[in-house]
Amino acid sequence: MEQILPVLLGSDANVYGMARSFYMQYGVTSLAIGKGALAATANSKLVKMAVIEPNLEDDAVFCKTLQTFAAQHTGKTLVLVSCGDNYTGLMARNRAALEGLYHFACPTPELVEQLDTKEFFYQACEAHGLAYPKTFSCTNQNYKTVKLPFDFPCIIKASNSVAYWNCKFPHKKKVFIAYNQQEFDAICAAIYSSSYQDNLVLQEYIPGDDNCMRVLNCYSGQDHKVHLMALGRPLLEEQTPEGIGNYAAILSIKDEELMEKMKAFLEDVGWEGFSNFDMKYDVRDGKYKLFEMNPRQGRSSFFVTASGYNLAKWLVEDVVEHKPQGLTIADTQHLWMIAPAGILKKYLKDKELLAQARSLMRQGKVTHQLFCKEDFTLKRAIWYVKNQLNNYRKYKRYFGNKSLVD
After folding, report:
1. Is the peptide bond before 153 cis (omega within 30 degrees of 0)?
2. Mean pLDDT confidence for 272-287
3. How many Å apart are CA 387 and CA 170, to the nearest integer?
4. Residues 338/232, Cβ–Cβ less than 8 Å
5. Domain 210-398, CATH 3.30.470.20 — does that match?
6. Would you say 167 and 195 are in contact if contact means Cβ atoms under 8 Å apart?
7. What does the radius of gyration of the chain's CA atoms come to, in whole angstroms?
8. What does the alpha-carbon distance between residue 280 and residue 213 come to, in Å, rounded to a whole number?
9. Is-contact 240 330, C-beta < 8 A?
10. With contact defined as beta carbons under 8 Å apart, do 221 and 244 qualify?
């Protein structure tokens, strides 16, 4: 095999995690292409920003940028990886322009559009017998008069995650919770005062702390069969407005019954590439309620590689080496973190889970997303220390706050 060159779309912590996976498995430095440059990938030996193109979400610009990049790197086996929903959509729509230049796995544009939009995803869940929270929706036309079919609290989030990511308004959060009608009205009005004009998803609140959440990362091959599944139990979520729904610490776990259901779903719809599911265990009926599917590996997906199942390996063996792959279900217990241990010890209230986390730390079965000893530079070390210390300020200010105030 010629030397592979990973080409990662984006510049966030997910990109860093994928670059780290490629470095661990193949000893290569990844190159990244994105709309901008973020701190998570700055001053790194594992990944370099090769192209910054603010208009990358334009299909014509996207194609030209990637075709030009490929022409500049002939003789290398280019492995293309999306690290964002928007980039997966771009890859799907422009597959014909990329094939022959890059090796990649990607779903069809129809599947991306269907399953990355929450309302359509819930329709797919209904068709495949998967549980999800009681869900309603509203539009920019009827949000002032809509009547919820369930009691408050109410979760409010955008149906179109890409459009919502690109909008701006005061006190914007990734997910809101309204505890009464007055808060509901104020949150919806604030969202629709922005450029976001698509539907809003309204859901019943599933009781339980962050550790009732589950995150599932999968890889489906070009044969549309699931080859890798890894389940994690988040212990804490991040708390900043833009970080709500992202995880701060994850404990690797296993649930074969759940995984069998999700495997059947992915293979029934004919998925190809990475996928990521967020769900919550509902103690009221003992079911996992699915929240969303992301058409990519999750931002915290390095927990899979950290527990011994390198994501880059599964991708390369499929799209480059064309090796036959069966199904692997991750079953190694490991602790993944992006926040410092002190945050976990202070804010994780479940004593049993905290004891498990402490035990894994003592055994050395713990990995930090952003700390890699092979990637030490003075600038990165200074940034890392500041990043970790900043968590204490953010948790103190935002912990438990999903309202329209900071």
Report:
1. yes
2. 96
3. 24
4. no
5. yes
6. yes
7. 21
8. 4
9. no
10. no
CA distance 300 to 310: 13
> Does residue 338 contact residue 249 with C-beta atoms inside 8 Å?
yes
Yes or no: say if 102 and 79 are a contact pair by the CB < 8 Å rule. Answer: yes
Question: In terms of Cα–Cα distance, which of 295, 245, 259 is closest to 120?
Answer: 295
In whole angstroms, give the CA distance from residue 266 to residue 396. 39
Sequential DSSP letters for 183-240: HHHHHHHHHHTSS--S-EEEEEPPPS-GGGEEEEEEEE-TTS-EEEEEEEEEEEE--S
Instruction: Retrieve residue 33's tokens.
Output: 């292409």
Architecture of domain 134-204 in this structure: 2-Layer Sandwich (3.30)
Q: What are phi and psi of 246, to 5 degrees?
A: -85, 155
Residue 2 DSSP code: P
Round the average pLDDT of the chain to a whole number and report it: 94
Give the start-to-end residue ranges of the domains of the chain: 4-105, 134-204, 210-398
Q: What angle do CA 191, 133, 264 make, to 5 degrees?
A: 115
| pLDDT on residue 1 | 55
Pick the CATH number of 4-105 from 3.40.50.1220, 3.40.50.20, 1.10.10.60, 3.40.30.10: 3.40.50.20
The rounded distance, in Å, linking the Cα atoms of 353 and 255 is: 17
Place of tokens 């949000």: 143
Give yes or no for residue 242 having a pLDDT over 90: no
Place of tokens 């994105």: 34
pLDDT at 268: 97
pLDDT at residue 165 in the model: 86
| Distance of alpha carbon 132 from alpha carbon 206, whole angstroms | 10
Alpha carbons 33 and 63: distance in angstroms, whole number = 12
Using the predicted structure, report yes or no on whether residue 7 has a pLDDT greater than 70. Answer: yes
- Within 10 A of 37 (CB to CB), how many other CB atoms are there? 12
Predicted confidence band of residue 406 (pLDDT cuts 50, 70, 90): low
Percent of the chain with pLDDT over 90: 90
Pick the more confident residue, 174 or 12. Answer: 12
